[in-house]
Amino acid sequence: MVRKNLDERPLGAEPRPEELLAQSGLTGVALVTSGKTAWKRGDIDAPFVIYSLTKPVIAAALLSLAADRVIDLDAALPDGRLGGASVRQLMRHTAGVRDYGQLAEYHQAVRRSPSEPWSDEEFLRRALGGDQNPGWAYSNTGYLLLRQVLDRHGGLASFLPGLGFTTATVAEQLPDLARAVPARSSLIGDGAQLVAGRYHPGWVGHRTLVATARELRQFWSKPPAAFTDPANLVTLGIDTRGLFVRLSYGLGVMADPGNSIGLVIGHGGGGPGYSAAVFTAPEHGAMAIVLEPNENFPAQPLAANLLRAAVLSRI
Fold it and tell me: Cα separation of 301 and 257, whole Å?
């Protein structure tokens, strides 16, 4: 249960970040910061596949295009199958676009042919057929469409330097995951198979970055103002078993404006071989990054708990 008031916390009752890390079973990387204090586990310059943790980076790139008046976030995309959905709606998952990740045939195809992904049009043909879901519904398909918008303006990779990434790469082809810390997956064939050389990143419709904790810290230390604007947040009403108080989704980010430590923003990512998460408390200058070469690792709960511990350790 998350306490509503920090003053209700018994002295010494909250674990410190180093205690949480020691008990976590983490074999990958964690970077936790609060002010000038930092806790580290593993090599923060080691590259990891971050999957949906790429979504906030896509959103930041789109926001930069909108700031330069290159695109209009509220203009309808031309694809008639989208019913007039806008970039802003896709960013917030309110366009009613079915998530290909909910399709059984998608997961069957990944297991059966991990090196041969569907084309963009095949993703869209399968996901956009039939009725779409109104209201908020998490959609990887929506971010595939947003990645296509970026492709028309130089592609996601061209925005990375301006967003604080110097060594991160966008995985596009089969060999592109080879630079990441090795991981095995039970999702891409029989038994635990090595991800690199077998799993094609084209199965991630919006694509994935291969990035380090150091670079993620750089990006999240200066997030776009739109990430923290309450006007952009949609309250989800999802039970998170106490992890968040008022879980919301904004322009490419998860958010908790009701958290007892103040506004929390971030995102998670998971897929064959890897789990990742970043959560930040901007008003405290605190952040927790977790990157793990294990698809079943609870990266998001650990990052959220590390962030809370980091903030409370200074109070």
Answer: 17
Write out the two tokens for 69. 């008046």
Place of tokens 């970077």: 31
Judge whether 93 and 236 are in contact, CB under 8 Å: no
* The dihedral sign for the CA sequence 281, 284, 287, 288: negative
Residues 118-173 pLDDT 10s? 999 999 999 997 666 668 899 999 999 999 999 999 999 999 999 999 999 999 99
Cβ-Cβ contacts under 8 Å for 301 (sequence gap 6 or more)? 243
Burial of residue 241, with CB atoms counted within 10 A of its CB: 0-12 exposed, 13-18 middle, 19 or more buried:
exposed
Per-residue H/E/C for 107-162: HHHHHHCCCCCCCHHHHHHHHHCCCCCCCCCCCHHHHHHHHHHHHCCCCHHHHCHH
The model's pTM is 0.94
Nearest alpha carbon to residue 219 among 292, 166, 284: 166
Confidence tier at 3 by pLDDT (50, 70, 90): very low
Query: What is the C-alpha to C-alpha distance for residues 247 and 300, in angstroms, rounded to an integer?
Result: 13
What is the per-residue pLDDT across 195-239, written as a single tens digit (0 to 9) for each?
999 999 999 999 999 999 999 999 999 999 999 999 999 999 887
- 261: helix, coil or strand? coil
Of 229, 261, 223, 275, residue with least CA distance to 248: 229
Distance of CA 196 to the CA centre of its chain: 20
DSSP state of 99: P
Of 266, 271, 274, 158, nearest in space to 220 by CA: 266
Q: Are 256 and 202 in contact (CB under 8 A)?
A: no
Q: Give burial (CB, 10 Å; 0-12/13-18/19+) of 16.
A: middle
